[in-house]
Amino acid sequence: METRGRVLVVDDKENILKLFARLLGDTYEVTCAEDGARALALVAAREFDVVVSDVRMPGADGFEVLRAVKSRYPDTEVVMMTGYATVPDAVEAMRAGAFDYLQKPFLPEAPVELVARAMERRRLRLQAEVLGPPSPGTGFSFTGAVGRSAAMQEAHRLIEQAARLDITVLLTGETGTGKELAARAVHLNSARRERPFVAVNCGALPTELVESELFGHARGAFTGAAQARAGLFEEAQGGTLFLDEVGELPLSAQVKLLRVLQEKEVRRVGETRPVQVDVRVVAATHRDLRAAAAQGRFREDLFYRLNVFPVQLPPLRERKEDIALLAAHLLDKHCKAMGRTLEGSTPEALRVLTGYPWPGNVRELENALMRAVAVAAGPHVTERDLPPEVRERQEGALPGGAAKQLPYRDALDLARDRFTREYLTALLRDFEGNVTRAAEHAGIERESLHRLLKRHGIRSEDFKPR
């Protein structure tokens, strides 16, 4: 079975959604969202290869969709749709990382050709990113392993070994340490490389839809199930299924996952006939699953089924000697993506990068450097091009009066970011990591609070009772 690329189409006009489903449905797996809010929920749960979004929509607009996609999945290609009057908006979106724009009205072949080009660009970027230049003495490499630190080299050795073995792999490590890149490296260096790689964030799936997404459902199995649908296990047939944040699965789904791993078969919701599957599972979590199993929050038998080949990915603060190499690689990557030419980072910028603790790890570093590439005015990335929170939060390096050395606007940004970080930390501590209650108390939307937490590298999980 040939891998079908995933396309998300976002538009508040039903006729546009139907048109895209008809034009692309035979070639790709097309998911439609009637507004930006629905698109944000879908992007939080699953990765798409290409997102096609209208610019102007009620609620969350195309720019918000673009930012959410690029923040979570930098390699996903985004195409913006626009009417003639808003072409400048689309051009601005391209500067922010969009692949191209589609002007309405358009001929039927235009979106077909544009999505095909976006798919090919994504395929080539992922191949270059995951199967990068081989390490000395081996034909295997992946971008997440950039660095000379002993911890990263050990992780690299284990991932190379896991790729050669057709067994279940459990990747552990903090958020942003490169677990999905490692999973892709395992797949693309394995005997299953020509078959599908399917990724899903278990923590972002609505509880009532977890089993349907993973195992599929029969027609009429529940309200809204207008037709039968294969689950992600069947979609990944012959290839690899990446279960990110597997520790967030509800216990009912854990029971069914255990059976799939044991029996190599799935039962769609509402059906009794099993379907045989041949899928390698790579799971990932930032939680201590052994401790969760001891506390009854994760099935112990499932933990042992997943923990066949464990690989721990180290946090960036424990391999600071790799930051300069990673920064050079990421600058080159985003310069190419944005069509810019920069000669690297100044010594002062590298000092700041090395002094920051990177609670969001490589993902946070990448976001910081993506911003720096976008705003840099000279031939080098300077300290001032880095986000204010990175400039401010140096481990033991910022004297109390450092702000007065900065221009007023930068000093104000630092004060605002410091206040926001302290406020969010106190808020989550008071509500024990419950984002819904914290948002209600703060008088802001839950999604807005999530975005603030992500921007400041704060995890609600760290405040929940152990």
Using the 3D structure, state the CATH architecture of the largest domain.
3-Layer(aba) Sandwich
According to DSSP, the number of beta strands is 14
Mean pLDDT: 83
The major β-sheet equals: 5 strands, parallel
Q: Name the poorly predicted regions.
A: 131-139, 395-403
Helical/strand content category: alpha/beta
Protein name: Fis family transcriptional regulator
Organism: Cystobacter ferrugineus
InterPro entries: AAA+_ATPase (IPR003593), AAA_lid_NorR (IPR058031), CheY-like_superfamily (IPR011006), Homeodomain-like_sf (IPR009057), HTH_Fis (IPR002197), P-loop_NTPase (IPR027417), Sig_transdc_resp-reg_receiver (IPR001789), Sigma_54_int (IPR002078)
Domain Response regulatory: 6-119
Provide key terms for this protein.
466 residues; alpha/beta; Rossmann fold; Helicase, Ruva Protein, domain 3; five-stranded parallel beta sheet; 19 helices; 14 strands; globular
Please describe the topology of this protein.
Layout: E1 6-10, H1 14-24, E2 29-33, H2 36-45, E3 50-54, H3 62-72, E4 77-82, H4 87-95, E5 100-103, H5 109-130, H6 150-164, E6 169-172, H7 179-188, E7 197-201, H8 210-215, E8 216-217, E9 229-230, H9 232-235, E10 240-244, H10 251-263, E11 265-266, E12 275-276, E13 280-285, H11 289-294, H12 300-306, E14 309-312, H13 323-338, H14 347-355, H15 361-375, H16 388-392, H17 408-430, H18 435-442, H19 446-455
Parallel strand pairs: 1-2, 1-3, 3-4, 4-5, 6-13, 6-14, 7-10, 10-13
Antiparallel strand pairs: 8-9, 11-12
Helix pairs in contact: 2-3, 6-7, 13-15, 18-19
GO biological process, one term: regulation of DNA-templated transcription
Organism: Cystobacter ferrugineus
Protein name: Fis family transcriptional regulator
